[in-house]
Amino acid sequence: MHNKASELLSLVNQCDKEPIHLLGKIQKHGFMIIVDKAGVVTHLSENLEHFANVSRDNLIGQSLWDLLDRKLVHAIRGAQSQAMILSKATYLHSISIPYFEDKFDLCIHQSAEHLILEFEKLESAGKYEGVITALMAQMSMFSELDDLYQGLVESVRTATGHDRVMLYQFLADGSGEVIAESTTSDMTPFLGLRYPASDIPRQARQLYKKNLIRTISDVNGETYNIVGKGKENTDSIDLSLSRLRAVSEVHIQYLKNMKVGASMSISLIVEGELWGLIACHHNSKKVIPGRLVAQLELFAEMFSLELSRRLVNERIRVSEKANATFTRVLSNLSLGRSLNNAIAEQLSLLKTLIDIDGIGCIFSSEYTKSGAAFSSRKIKRLTAILAELPDEEIHQFDNLADIDDSLADTQVAGVLALKISSQPMDYIFLFRNSVVNQVSWAGNPSKRVELKDGEEVLTPRASFEKWVETNESTSTPWTTLDIERAKSIRLGVMELTIRHLHEKEQLQREAKKRLELLIGELNHRVRNILNLVSAIIGQTSQNKKDIDEFVISLSSRISALALGHDQLTHASYNSVRFKDLLHNELKAYMIKESSFKIEGPDIYLVPFAVTPIVLVFHEMITNAAKYGALSATSNDGKVAITWDLDEKGCIIKWEELGGPPLHGLGEEGFGMTVIKSVIPHELKGKTSLSTKITGLNAEFLIPRKYIKFGNRQTSTHDATHDEKPQADSKANTEKILTSALIVEDNLLISLDLKKHLKQLGIDKIDIFGDINSARAALAKVKPSMMFLDVHLGNENTFQLGIEIQKLSIPFLFITGYGAAIELPDELSDVDILTKPVDTALLKRSIEAFGFKV
Question: SS3 helix, strand, coil % of the chain, rounded to 5?
Fold first, then answer.
């Protein structure tokens, strides 16, 4: 018996691994052309000649771009760009191509190195632009989820004309259930029936996420191979995104057993996962026009968003109710008793929140229970099993006996295990009793095994009649809303037990960081303090002959030095007038006021900039006192500090005269590192130093956002780390690309180009979809570089390019026509990039203008 089960499991696993996206075949209601990067036809579907008066051999190896008119090539390449950006198929409608009499709808997508083009004959079934509006209008009529589901299937059946439309929701164990249905009177109803997870293999679910609409136009129809040169079959091309892709024989037999002639599925994706399918069946063959498919795909995305919103709102409603109830629970926990007892005693209140029959709590190896709950021995076994499972916040089981025989219990069948901590293993367990559980399956869910060519293979069940399974050791299944309520309980307990611990740890970490910085700065100050005092004594002694006068003067200098240190300590709290900052730092060295020149406009430094600038100028003055124009060896030393403003910010110049001759900056210690690095690193400004025989010269650029005018205080919100600094300018041979302007009427392509430019380090990028708005922008600002699509609707950008050229702004053309496009003589030297744009080529093209990216 065990061997038979193992063999069946092996067959199911084989089914899961079947490469259904690599079958190398398509359905008959369209044909396929596959081209390489250069546009050369590499593969065709065998049925091409059913639609055209040209042989396959005459097309394979030819350039498709040479066969089509330039306008269509441009449209296809633009659609290819969108398909690559979105990782899904895009559509062109009502196109004409050489050798074909009919018009076609064209589906375009990228598969590795191949561009796949799928052509379906244009149906004269009317226009479908209003489908989305009509369907979404219907959806807005229903406030309750059950009404929404029923309205959905009825509206889709009206829009598509299928005989049966079902809403199929996936459950937690991978199986699915029909929760809404609309059928014609002659169709067998499937409402309420469940289908096993193996009906839709794992790889099929992944394809449903990639390709939202899947149609099978004729279950009994022929399929055609995709062939390359020499007519060999080609089953290595990934057709995951294909509209025409054929399906496995097992799935075809499955549909035949259901007596279905054609089918269509519409995927519903909620929060990135496959929530369910809108499954459509028809008694006979049925081709869905390409234009309608495109509209249904967009509807699927819109409805998925609406469904996600409704489900989130429902969870919020449940969570709010849960939080309100659990607030009452928490209010009863501060009774001075153990947490275990306090929680277990809230069983009656928790029952109003979530449908449970018992509760158990284990904290620090102490177990307490209330109601229908496991014994201590079984809890130890359950926690041991949980420790071996992948780490999850909540584990849910509705049949504990299936997990381990030792967990079989006369009272308890299901549990939600809420992990509070891993070390120790603290849990809250919410228990449910067993119920006589009946599940209505669409046919016997057990897999049928048959011999085929000497091998055992799985075959679809032949009957989908209602088949009832009864289980007496299972609890009522845990729902999504039960999980949401359990999350509220878990978070409430965790908040109660660990909130203060986390806050304490955070404060400790921040205090440690501040202490490390303080110790580093303190060590540096301690090393310098004696040298500074010595320098002040030396300067003071040069002009003071009387000992009392010397002591008074020296004391004032030391006090000024202390004031400078106080200023550094408190600088982060208020805006500081720059002249006051300099005055406080220079007080200790102002033996002669004529030794200083301080000139510049009246400006204030915002709080964020004060500490870095105080640090730097404290080091500059210290350096001048120890080695430069303010040192004891200098009798006529002078320091000039001047500043002015331009569009970039405040430029501060420091010039020393009359000090000891300097021939270099010498060994770089902590102080010189502060001078060189703090303003560029903290404020994204600039620092440049130079030594002359007359003394040290320095120039500092403080970005304008850190400067305020007049006599006013500013808040710490005036400058933050989050603001983007202006980029440093470099030598002409290595320019920085600070801004770019994109002129492109396709929003998706322009956003993708913007993303690539962002990755190359460009911060400011503006997008314009027409020439007039681009000209208006150019009248206000001159970007570093521009990127122009050649054609914007009914206009081209050639004249705009000539105007940009006169403004000396570097630019590139980007077009679906490729390098073969003819440019005006004035623009003959402009580079052209072909859609879809290669990122590496884009980078090289930008670098060719001398920009560093």
Answer: 40, 25, 35
